[in-house]
C-alpha cells in the first residue's frame, strides 16, 4: 500500500474543500427560490403502470393544498388499497408462512427526517404508520410486533391479514413446494 506524504494530503484536502465551497456557491446561485418553485407545476413519476392512480391522487392532494408529505402518503395509500396489485399493500403476496407482511418508508427533506415500518401484519396502510413514526417518535424504523403495537396505540386503520385471492395462491405455491421436495433425491451437495 502506498502512503501519501503529509504535504500532498494537506494540498489535496484544501483543494477538495475549496472546490466544494465554490460548487456550493455556484449551486446556490442557480437553485430556485420558493417563489420560483411555486410557479412550477409539480412532476410526479412512477416506475410501473400501477403507480399512475397513486400519482393522480398525489397531484390531487397537492391541488387541494396538501403538503408534499400529504401527497406522498395519500398516493401510496391508493396503491396499498389496490386489490389487483400483488407487489404492495393488502393484495401483497404472503410469505412462506402464509402471512402478508408489509413495509413502508417515508422521508422528509426539511429536517432530514425519515420513518419506516417493516413486517407489519393486519394494517391497511403501512405508509401512514411510517409517517407517524417519523413525526412522533425519535425512531426511524419499527418492526413486527413493535410496529403493530405502535399502530394500534395510535388508532391506525386495520385491514385484512391476507386476501382470499392471495391465500389461494399461497396454498397452491405451498403444495407445489411440497411436491417438489418430495421428488428431490435429498442429495444437494452440502455438508
What can you tell me about this protein's structure?
This protein is mainly alpha-helical and 191 residues long. Helix 3 (52-63) runs antiparallel to helix 4 (68-81) and helix 4 (68-81) runs antiparallel to helix 5. Strand 2, helix 5 (126-136) and strand 3 form a beta-alpha-beta unit. A 3-stranded mixed β-sheet has the order 1-2-3. The protein is built from 7 helices and 3 strands. It has helices at 6-30, 34-38, 52-63, 68-81, 126-136, 144-153, 164-183; strands at residues 102-108, 113-120, 141-143.
Q: Which spans have pLDDT < 50 for at least 5 consecutive residues?
A: none
Strands, count = 3
End-to-end Cα distance, whole Å, is 38 Å
What order do the helices and strands follow?
HHHHEEHEHH
Radius of gyration: 24 Å
Spatial ordering of strands, largest sheet: 1-2-3
Strand content: 5-15%
Number of helices: 7
Structural class: mainly alpha
Provide mean pLDDT, rounded: 85
The helix fraction, in percent, is 40-55%
Shape: extended
Largest sheet: 3 strands, mixed
